[in-house]
Amino acid sequence: MKTEMNISLQERVDALEREINGEKLQAEMLRKAKQYSNDYKEYLKNAEITDSLKVGKDSEGGYLVPDEMEEGLVEALEQNNVIRKLSTVINTKGPRKVNTHVKGPIGYWVDEGGPITFSDAEFYQVVIDAHKCGAMVGVTEELLEDAGFDIEKYIINQLGEAVGEKEEEAFVNGNGTTMPRGFLLDAEVGFETTELSGDALVMLQSSVRGKFGKNAVWVMSEEAEQQLRKIKSYAGRPLWQPDMTEGAPKRIFGKPVYVCKEMPKVLPGNCPIAYGDFSYYWIGERGNRSIKRLGERFADRGLIAYLYFHRVDGRLILPEAIKTLKIAA
Asked: Regarding the domain delimited by 58-93+134-329, which CATH topology (the fold level of the hierarchy) does it fall under?
């Protein structure tokens, strides 16, 4: 009995030590993260490189951005990139092979004791790799010396706009070779029409079937938006429905509308409107975001440049998840 009590007491002591050690480890990790973040800000302003900062050095001479700055960059990219906001974002360590089906299995009614007919589902493989995307931000030396100037916020805003727009261009129309593969290359044509109309939108929406319609949204060009806002239903009401929630997208037939300036114009042969579940467009991010300070390159102009890059790819993994409206020739 005494031995059992000693064992029980020892287990409690061991558990307490593990808990204390775990809290110490967590506190130490938080301390190092905060130290790295502070040193990183100093590096951006004064090019001071500390031992703490060397931990985040990458193979190309830059330094990995701290977690809080990375969160800000991701938020800025989403604000300037409609497709990133709607898609599924995953992290990859290498080429990611995604197996998806062309045709699923078929169900049957079977008589008692009767044979079951087997039908093979057809699959194909999508590979999500990585393409390097970057931008350069310039800041005057005078601005950096200003004590009230927030260099991190400035870089985040500038990169969010520049890189976000470049990403969106690729996620819509990219060739898949030197940049991510745009969803328009793989999305199926849901309906073809000679002009934009309410009937054409009904047919496009009807072409998106089953589970893909549940979370479907409209993505369209600025020109398509302008034309559709003039169209009224048979009851005389505009197709374009305002949402009373601040910041919420407008709606057509109850589904959110997102305007994307990278979508094609309303011209013969183009697909200016897409409808479907954009979570089936996968964005794969490889590694971490990095920034390299270039103090000498533009010294004659009184500028400090910051070179940013990250690696990313994108693929529509199920073509039937998104359908397009094509303008007939």
From this structure: phage-related protein like fold (3.90.1690)
